[in-house]
Amino acid sequence: MSVSICEFYETKELSHSVFNIRSKIFLYIRKMKLGKSAFRRYKVIDGALRNTMRPYPTMEDIIEACVDKLDYRPSKETIQKDIANMKSPHPDGFDAPIQFNRTHLGYEYTDPNYSFSGISIRPEDLETLNEAVEVIRAIGGSKISEKFNHAVTKLFSAALEERQLEKRQTILQTMRPPVSRGFQYFDLFYKACSERLPVSFIHFSYKKRTFSSIIVHPFLIKEFENRWYIIGYSETHQSVRTFGLDRVSEPLLLKSPFIETDVATVHDYLHQVYGVFPIPDAQLEQIEIEVSELGTHYLQAYPLHESQVIHKESEGTSLITYQLIPSIELCRYFLSQGYHVEIVRPKWLKKFTQDLVQ
User: Fold this and answer.
1) How confident is the model at residue 89 (pLDDT cuts 50, 70, 90)?
2) Cβ density class 288-308: b for 16+ within 10 Å, e for less
3) What is the pLDDT of residue 3?
4) Integer Cα distance of 315 and 297 in angstroms
5) Distance CA 279, CA 281 (A)
6) Does pLDDT of 353 surpass 90?
7) pTM for the predicted model, two decimal places
8) Which of 22, 51, 256, 323 is deepest in the core (most CB within 10 A)?
9) Crossing angle, helix 59-70 and helix 36-49, to 10 degrees?
């Protein structure tokens, strides 16, 4: 059995952590294509078209409705553009079935069951959405692609209507590093993962200071420590490899057959690797570390992995175990903790980690 998957770390509850929320929503709002005023006019146009007391509203009727509800008079050209945008197909528009009825000399919905909003949300639901908006804005920045942003904006227009979300006082702030080099290719690789398309690109090796041509069959986009990576089967290396987006240039989607990656390998990269670069030929095994009292408190508060188990000792120290595929990032984490962490098992991993500093 094989799969082609593009997913981020899964989360179940908002309260788990801001990091987990960021991982799930991938990403963040780059730029609003449509302003709030445009959506308000859309709502007025929709209301005029659904008004059974005054069917077939004319252009002047719609303009007067805007004056009445929005306190300003839009131009005829503005309303014409609004109607054209509403009629545009998904995802750019709302697929609104609007036409000009030449018999009645007014506008109408050709489908009487069409609903512009189509959303029924209670006041408490609006408040929950409001809180979610704050989280998205705090952790988003430019990470959400245009198509997701458009969907979110449409939801706000239908559900939140006149709520002035931007006036709420900010109560959440997270670290938002500048957009890294290579991130402009995020949408391309997302498309490649979801539609099972191979990608060719030029890869730059920081260590060798050389360029090489790569063809990869990607199955996962992964963020680790605010850096983005693409993981997939590399035709060049004849194995699954990880490539930093910051080292990628000139990516192109290919129409050649896609090479699938087996389920077990995908699962390993999703759940059993800390970081993004597993040690070559390393297998899933139990890793044991001896941790100081201070280090124990820290790892209790911030578990390194879901498999973490802490066995406390009488002196205040602890023996902590993990079920992981050893990775370069895991070794570097252990080294960063200094005397607070000592690798007990496996012995080969202890020597491998020590060799990293030589």
Assistant:
1) confident
2) bbebbeebbeebeeeebeebe
3) 40
4) 13
5) 6
6) yes
7) 0.58
8) 22
9) 120
Which tokens go with 89? 């197909």
Of 333, 193, 351, 341, nearest to 258 by C-alpha is 193
How far apart (Å, rounded) are the C-alpha atoms in residues 351 and 330? 14
pLDDT at 231 over 50: yes
Q: Selecting from 2.20.28, 3.30.70, 2.30.30, 2.60.120, what CATH number does the domain 183-271 have?
A: 2.30.30
Structure tokens at 244: 């930093």
Q: Where do the structural domains in the chain lie, given as residue ranges? A: 36-109, 183-271, 285-356
Residue 322: name the closest of 306, 335, 342 by CA.
306
8 A C-beta contact, residue 44 and residue 65: yes
Token pair for residue 148? 């997701």
Question: For the purposes of burial, counting CB atoms within 10 Å of the CB of 219, is it exposed (0-12), middle (13-18) or buried (19 or more)?
Answer: buried
* Cβ atoms of 301 and 38 closer than 8 Å: no
Q: Which of 250, 248, 213 is nearest to 234 (CA)?
A: 213
- Cα 278 from Cα 242, distance rounded (Å): 9
Kindly give, in sequence order, each residue whose CB lies less than 8 Å from that of residue 181, ignoring residues fewer than 6 positions away: 245, 246
